[in-house]
Amino acid sequence: MTERVCVARIGAAHGVRGEVKLWSFTEDPEAVADYGPLETEDGMCHFEIESLRAAKEHFVARLKGIDSRNAAEALRNVELYVPRERLPAIDKEDTFYVADLIGLDAVTPDGDALGRVTAVHNFGAGDIIEIAPAKGAPLMLSFTGANVPDVNLEAGRIVVAVPNEIEAREG
Questions:
Q1: What is the pLDDT of residues 113-136, one digit of tens each?
Q2: pLDDT tens track for 141-166
Q3: Which of 79, 111, 126, 161 keeps 20 to 30 A from 16, CA to CA?
Q4: How is residue 120 annotated by DSSP?
Q5: How many CA atoms lie within 13 Å of 149's alpha carbon, on the beta-carbon side?
Q6: Fold of 98-170
Q7: The model's pTM
Q8: Could you tell me the CATH superfamily of domain 4-86?
């Protein structure tokens, strides 16, 4: 399991006083402000959320020490992480941190290798899991119980029931 988990991404500057658009990836989107200082992927820069307010499909955040539009624009597309130990334990079955899915082996219900999970996307209509096969184009499927009936973090794999239309196209 990864030591740090991505919880947010900074978007464009909002206004001229250093506020930024912020996309939260936490189960409760407002909880992103509760995990203490957020850090860049390399851990070199830390950010504290001073204020957070809801906007259309994102938040507007004021980050401590960011007080100009230029400083805010320099942070565009920076992903923000927290150490795993600051996140709540997951007690619900079939609930995972996306970071824990990346790198898992993907196999068919019969155990045949399909590839490796390389990403989980959400373009607004639900999660999409991306699987890179040993050769060929990536496979992208809705991350639903029908398509992914089993996730086994301990075994390092997911079971993928490939829809018939994809099997026909690939076969």
A1: 999 999 988 776 778 999 999 888
A2: 999 889 999 999 889 999 999 876 45
A3: 79
A4: E
A5: 8
A6: SH3 type barrels. (2.30.30)
A7: 0.72
A8: RimM (2.40.30.60)
